[in-house]
Amino acid sequence: MLKVGINGYGTIGKRVADAVAAQPDMDVCGVSKASPDFGADGAVRRGYALYSAREDRLSAFRDAGYDVAGTSEDLIEESDVVVDATPGGIGAENRPRYEAAGTPAIFQGKEADDLVETSFNARANFEAAEGAEYVRVVSCNTTGISRLVAPLEEAYGVEKVRATLVRRGGDPDQTGRGPINDILPDPITVPSHHGPDVNTIFPDLSIDTMGLTVPTTLMHMHSLNIELESEPTSAEVRELLAEESRIFVVEDDLAIDGTGKLRELARDRGRPRGDLWENCVWGESINVQDSELYLFQAIHQESDVIPENVDAIRAMTGLADGDESMQTTDEALGIGLPDPRRAAVTSPAP
Amino acid sequence: MLKVGINGYGTIGKRVADAVAAQPDMDVCGVSKASPDFGADGAVRRGYALYSAREDRLSAFRDAGYDVAGTSEDLIEESDVVVDATPGGIGAENRPRYEAAGTPAIFQGKEADDLVETSFNARANFEAAEGAEYVRVVSCNTTGISRLVAPLEEAYGVEKVRATLVRRGGDPDQTGRGPINDILPDPITVPSHHGPDVNTIFPDLSIDTMGLTVPTTLMHMHSLNIELESEPTSAEVRELLAEESRIFVVEDDLAIDGTGKLRELARDRGRPRGDLWENCVWGESINVQDSELYLFQAIHQESDVIPENVDAIRAMTGLADGDESMQTTDEALGIGLPDPRRAAVTSPAP
Can you tell me which residues bind D-glyceraldehyde 3-phosphate (chains A, B) (predicted)? Predict the structure, then answer.
């Protein structure tokens, strides 16, 4: 069993830990946290060995009653691979520590592309990470766009992507963020940095993105216009996307009108934390006119990159090829909502 | 002085009344309301003659202590022109009443285009309403797009418009509306009905729109992609738009990051009700690449159609031609924020 260490146990780290624990070929050998807040309690209850991110915080954990296994240095030594889920920018500071220990590491989307050998999306470029020591799983929005572009590019060719990303202001636990009752062009300049980030996965793709931020916490929403090189029907595109395990095509008769009902469906399905790992594309919105495809998709910012982190581990360590890894990940997590009315309820351990 | 009656004294009606009262060539001869709520108090305080929308509500107004001049039938008889600002669909029911009295009438954007001789935007098709008896001022979103498309079409030619309209869930006084903490594709089907509505002003324009609704009340936000027939620079487009009196190009150094600060600027300027009659286009967002123009604009849903209603009155009655009418309206209201740091504070008479 591959030993995976999780450095940083926040929104992404705690989810990656649970996803790794659910896999048949890897184990969580420990998680490292910066402070003994309520997240530490969650880690201990799940049976993960707890490490302190810093030497000088060890006493804070012990004072709070936690049995700490060591510092993150110890965790890095202990691990076959580390998933770095620390806040943006800290990953870059950590890379020399992974190098010193000879431990391969996966970074998250807020780190720069040039920190790693390759940026990664399982559906689009699994092979690029095979054997790599330092890999970056792209952001939630880039993951969502990459999953959509990959099958469209293969089936029809993509001439140009134009996307408006209507982003949630913060996650449910980010109480310090806004806006309240506002719509912000964010960034005001056009195109936004999101397009170039997609180019770390598809270097030759022509893509322009515009970002907005609104007062919600549940999911991002993408309003997409994609010029194709050929002219499929709307029904053909819908079928193509429905075959993708990490795209959930929302059927009309489910009466799902927005991100709230999507998350409620995930909660009803018993999904851990009510997570939605799949892109959620409204079937009714898929429309092709003169080779231009329009659609709406919602992206769960807290969880869509989780299966990608698991697949990146397998790509780097050679545990499986792309198809096999994605299938194993999907089965272990219960990914795939082809028809939520008939599918069984599945959740990862624990 | 032209006698203008206002039938329906809600969000639009009360603003049209004040705008008419501020003009040098027309007077408010009365306003008609459905019920004696706090809006009736506002009408009386402004000195408008108050009419009851229905005969059977006269006693309700009188019981509430209001001196009512009659019913809306009386107001229609009394008026040279009526601005119908009743809720969507009621305008169509009212048209036979205007016909019976021989009174020309202006309807709002929620009525159907085929109810009238022409749909109307002062900047784009003033002439179409000259001498007409029944005219429809298009919706706030269509007004916003029309003001933008008209100068671009004249200067460069427009090949295609693609717009994502991120709409506010309700106005500040619409307490029964949502969503809370959600982003709704609205409508889910693409393209939305907004594009065809713009075609009531520009019949030959190629335009696809996508609608979303978010939990805000202040303004709509448009994320726009416009393919031009020629290739101006970003700076040229910025200058072109800055010359339009009803487009406010938001300068970078004002540090206006969203709709909240825009409305705060309007409040600081002493604008009545904090209204923003102009399209608000972020200058920094204006970007032309390969003949494709991108920009963000915010639209104040409660007020951008107000000057258009005033101009429609002049077009129908022959009081002025388009340029003269728009100039008179703009001066009377204090429209135009070319440089809010230097412009004088102006507000219309209450």
Answer: 139-141, 194-195
pLDDT tens, position by position, B63-102: 999 999 999 999 999 999 999 999 999 999 999 999 999 9
- How far apart CA B293 and CA B290 sit, in angstroms, is 8
Mean pLDDT of the region A134-145: 98
What is the architecture, at CATH level 2, of domain B2-138+305-333?
3-Layer(aba) Sandwich (3.40)
Question: Partners of A118 in the beta sheet?
Answer: A135
List the Cα angle B273/B348/B131 in 5-degree steps: 105
Answer yes or no: is pLDDT of B341 > 50: no
CATH number of B140-299: 3.30.360.10
Position B336 scores a pLDDT of 85
What is the rounded CA–CA span in Å between residue B262 and residue A132?
49
CB B330 within 8 A of CB B40: no
A243-297 confidence digits (pLDDT tens): 999 999 999 999 999 999 999 999 999 999 999 999 999 999 999 999 999 999 9
Which fold would CATH assign to domain A2-137+305-333?
Rossmann fold (3.40.50)
The whole-angstrom distance between B179's CA and the closest CA on chain A is: 9
Q: Residues of A within the annotated binding site for D-glyceraldehyde 3-phosphate? A: 139-141, 194-195
Alpha-helix residue ranges (DSSP H) falling in B243-344: 259-268, 306-317, 322-333
> Which residues in B lie closer than 8 A to residue A298 (C-beta atoms)?
183
Q: Which residue in the set A184, A191, A260 is minimally distant from B182, CB to CB? A: A260
Q: What gap in Å lies between CA B153 and CA B290, rounded to an integer?
A: 17
CA–CA dist B254, B282 (Å, integer) = 10
